[in-house]
Amino acid sequence: KLKTKLDKNIEIQNIYFSYQNGKWYISGCYKKEFPDKFQNLEVLGLDWGIKNFMTTSKGEIINYPKSVLREYQRIGKLQKVRDKKQLNSKNYNKMQEKVRLAYERMENIKRNFVEQKTTELCKNYDIAIEDLINQKIKIKYKSWRRILIISPLYLFEDKLKWKCKKFGSNFYKVKPHNTSKTCSNCGSIKENLTLNERIYHCKECGFIIDRDINDAINIIRKAKDKLHLLLGLKKILLDIDKAIKIVRETEEESEVVPNLMIGFGIDEIQAEYVAEIKLRHLNKEYILKQKGENS
User: What digits encode the pLDDT tens for the residues 240-288?
Assistant: First the structure.
């Protein structure tokens, strides 16, 4: 049974067999061209949380299906019954098979949800998300560990990135620094914000908003700011030698930014960003890498 319908003329490469949960699978890869021109869709911010899996900048709550939790709880009960049986006995092996099937069912439910939800989001929006993959998330409570098992972030994020390329929408990852503490209305930072505060109340402007929605809106703003800088880098990419020449031939340091603005038609923020790049980084490989991380 093919998971994806393929054209008869497509050549499948790197074919390999794998054995998982009592079943054999055959896998392979093939070349697929993604759209070169990306659409300019509305940017949707996604904030990962403990109470809810995802909260969007529009206020929508995204959670894995409740059937995942039920299956997880069922697995725990089956394992307790299995552990009371004699190891490697017939009854033990029967219960082990039930545990295996329950795990398989739980993973299939999660995979189906991720496929459907990411398709819905990436078809209609440009996606902005916090870069939490390399962040150390402190697991304080046992319930948090359970949430990470039931609602894995990495699976959802990988699909978002791939489907953005597939459907021609943009995918942005931003640093999570102060996204929760910053007021999305006036930009002030609330340093003493605790995790228990689910409603964000700004002392500066009096703005009141759900904490997770506030976070998602700030993620959008960070993504747009980063995109603005990358558009400046894109113009530099057209003529790197010209940028180096402008920097070298400018006599006063204070004139570097204005000269870059005039030479490339970029604004002050973009010019400041380019001017701060080390000379050894002012090459096509570095600039393309910066662009690639946010496409």
Answer: 888 888 888 888 888 888 888 888 888 888 888 888 876 656 666 666 6
Our separate counts of H helices and E strands in the chain read 9, 9
Judged on CB neighbours under 10 Å (0-12, 13-18, 19+), 149 is: exposed
Chain position carrying tokens 């002392």:
203
pLDDT in tens, 173-211: 888 888 888 998 888 888 888 878 888 898 888 889 998
> Which DSSP helix (H) or strand (E) runs through 28?
strand 23-29
Nearest to 208, CA basis, from 178, 185, 179, 181: 185
Please tell me the distance from the alpha carbon of residue 138 to that of residue 3, in angstroms, as a whole number.
37
Token pair listed for 77: 């009960």
pTM: 0.76
The candidate with the shortest Cα–Cα distance to 273, out of 221, 223, 234, is: 234
Q: Which residues contact 269 (CB under 8 A, 6 or more apart)?
A: 228, 229, 232
- Is pLDDT at 164 greater than 60 in this prediction? yes
115 confidence band (pLDDT: 50, 70, 90): very high
Name 242's Cβ contacts closer than 8 Å, sequence gap at least 6. Answer: 263, 264
Q: Determine which helix (DSSP H) or strand (DSSP E) holds 78, and give its type and residue range.
A: helix 66-83
Q: Characterize 104-123 residue by residue with b for buried, 16 or more Cβ atoms within 10 angstroms of its Cβ, and e for exposed.
A: eebeebbeebbeebbeebbe
Token pair for residue 51? Answer: 């109470």
| Strand pairing category for 126-130 and 171-174 | parallel
End-to-end Cα, the chain, rounded Å: 33
Name residue, tokens 């949430």.
147
- Of residues 55, 220, 217, the one with CA closest to residue 126: 220
Question: What does DSSP assign to residue 167?
Answer: H
Tokens describing residue 46: 């996604």
